[in-house]
Amino acid sequence: MNERLITHLRHVDLAVPDYDKQLEFYTTMWGLEPTVTDGGIAFLAAAGSPEQYSVRLRKAAEKRLDLIAFGAATPADVDALAERLGADGVPLVGEPGKMQTPGGGYGFRFFDCDGRTVEVSCDVDVRAHRKLEEGEAVPVKLSHVVINSPNPEQNVAFYEKHLGFALSDTLMHPRMGSMMWFLRTNRWHHSLAIARGPHVALHHASFEMRGIDEYMRGTGRLLRGGVEKVWGPGRHLAGNNTFSYFLDPHGNTIEYTTELEELDEDSWHPHLYDFSDPAVSDQWGTANPMNEFVAKQSFNDPDRGIFVAPPV
After folding, report:
1. Whole-angstrom Cα distance, residue 262 to residue 273?
2. Model's pTM, two decimal places?
3. 6-122: which CATH architecture?
4. 93: how many CB neighbours lie within 10 A of its CB?
5. For labeling, which of 89, 149, 206, 276 is most exposed (least CB within 10 Å)?
C-alpha cells in the first residue's frame, strides 16, 4: 500500500435527465441547501459540513454517476498522487490544475479500474457552516459512498495500492463468498465501500445526521412524504452505524445514517462478518429483512459514464 495522500470524502456528483425533479427532492425532502444553481448544474451543501457542496446535480440525457471526489492536504500531495497514478498506468482525465467549481482549489481527475471518474483536490475554500440544533433533521455531511462492481477484488486492490485506502471489515455469505469491502482513508470506519454487483453502478450515498433522534425524524419525514423506502431503520454491525435507505426520483439509493464508528487505526484488525446472520445486517432487528428486493434496488442501473469523464 502506498503512502496515504487522500484525507477525506468531499462530494458525489450525479447526472440525471429530470433535473428539476431531482433538485426539488434533494432540497425540500432530503434536506440539502442549494449554494449555486445555474444552467442545469446545482451544487448542494450539507448544513454542518465545511465542504462547498456534498452533492452536485447535472442535467443530462442519461442517468450516471459523474464522479466521486476526495480531498488531499496540499498541492504537493495532489501532484505526487497524479504522478504516482500516471507512472502506474492509471488513465488521467487531466493534469492537476486550478479547479473551476465553487470554492476553487487545486486538483485533477482520473479513471479507476472500473472506469468511474474520481476527483482529488486541495485548497478548496471552507464553506460557512454551523452546528445543527437538537431536533434538526437534515444532513450534517456526506458520510460515505458505496459502489457496485462485477470485479470488486480488483477494485479493492486498486484503492489500497494507488490511493492508500485501508480495509476495515468485509461482509461475506456462505454461498456467495465475500460481498462487500469497507475501506477507510482516516479514522472513520469507511468513506468508501465496494460491493459485488452485476454491473458498475452507484450502490448508495450516505449522509450523516446529528444524532439518533434527528436520524429517526428524517426517516419519518421521508416515510410520511411517500418516498420509497428500500431498507431500515436499523443498525449495521460493520461500522456500527444506523441506516435508513430510500430511493431518489431517479432510482439511486441514498441513506440517512449516524454514529459511524471511529477506529483506532493502530490497533484495528479487520473482521470477516457473515451477513446470513440477521444480526450482522441489523443489530436492532427493526429493519425489513435483507432480501432480493433490497439487493436489486441497490444494484441500480448500469452506469453510462464508464471511461467517459463528465463535461464539467
Report:
1. 18
2. 0.97
3. Roll (3.10)
4. 16
5. 89
